[in-house]
């Protein structure tokens, strides 16, 4: 780029000299005396031709310089993009590494207000059981959630495992099992956000077992303790079945 700039300077100098000569020949009356008319015209035409050629060369050199600059900018942008790609790739790599290490090491988590240490494979076991429940395989889901509760008795996922296990038992008409499971959940985690819904499941299981008095008491408790909840609305509707 430096060599090209020097060339342009030389060309501009030549163009200036030629222009000056043209002006001189145009304005000086003495210049016409040095040449015959034909020679003067020829000299002027030659000067104009040389000047035009020089200007064309200069324009070509300027265009080449612009093209070179465009290529250089493209290379710089390409290098910058490569740098960004490398940075993104490294960030993704380290995030993936952190996730893998996290799956291999115990870590503290808070799940719906319950804090505890999550062991490697624990979250996957819970997620797998939940997927089975969502797929409608309720008996298998109950087995998986019950197994989870036994394997991880101190897990922050335990209240959820007991909740879904109780619902699985109720859905498969294991009403005594549902009552026992939900009562255990309520006793151990009385302030858990799933308790209102769990109590509705408990009341339904009591109702299906023929114990209307117990069901009425459970539904009334839901309405009085959680009056603004969706569970209270459900309990209010179910109260009619306890009469």
From TrEMBL:
<keyword id="KW-0574">Periplasm</keyword>
<dbReference type="InterPro" id="IPR014162">
    <property type="entry name" value="CpoB_C"/>
</dbReference>
<dbReference type="InterPro" id="IPR032519">
    <property type="entry name" value="YbgF_tri"/>
</dbReference>
<keyword id="KW-0802">TPR repeat</keyword>
<feature type="domain" description="YbgF trimerisation">
    <location>
        <begin position="53"/>
        <end position="109"/>
    </location>
</feature>
<comment type="function">
    <text>Mediates coordination of peptidoglycan synthesis and outer membrane constriction during cell division.</text>
</comment>
<dbReference type="InterPro" id="IPR011990">
    <property type="entry name" value="TPR-like_helical_dom_sf"/>
</dbReference>
<comment type="similarity">
    <text>Belongs to the CpoB family.</text>
</comment>
<dbReference type="InterPro" id="IPR039565">
    <property type="entry name" value="BamD-like"/>
</dbReference>
<keyword id="KW-0175">Coiled coil</keyword>
<dbReference type="InterPro" id="IPR034706">
    <property type="entry name" value="CpoB"/>
</dbReference>
<keyword id="KW-0131">Cell cycle</keyword>
<feature type="domain" description="Outer membrane lipoprotein BamD-like">
    <location>
        <begin position="122"/>
        <end position="241"/>
    </location>
</feature>
<dbReference type="GO" id="GO:0070206">
    <property type="term" value="P:protein trimerization"/>
</dbReference>
<feature type="repeat" description="TPR">
    <location>
        <begin position="196"/>
        <end position="229"/>
    </location>
</feature>
<keyword id="KW-0732">Signal</keyword>
<feature type="signal peptide">
    <location>
        <begin position="1"/>
        <end position="33"/>
    </location>
</feature>
<keyword id="KW-0132">Cell division</keyword>
<dbReference type="Pfam" id="PF13525">
    <property type="entry name" value="YfiO"/>
</dbReference>
<dbReference type="GO" id="GO:0043093">
    <property type="term" value="P:FtsZ-dependent cytokinesis"/>
</dbReference>
<dbReference type="Pfam" id="PF16331">
    <property type="entry name" value="TolA_bind_tri"/>
</dbReference>
<dbReference type="InterPro" id="IPR019734">
    <property type="entry name" value="TPR_rpt"/>
</dbReference>
<protein>
    <recommendedName>
        <fullName>Cell division coordinator CpoB</fullName>
    </recommendedName>
</protein>
<feature type="coiled-coil region">
    <location>
        <begin position="48"/>
        <end position="82"/>
    </location>
</feature>
<dbReference type="GO" id="GO:0030288">
    <property type="term" value="C:outer membrane-bounded periplasmic space"/>
</dbReference>
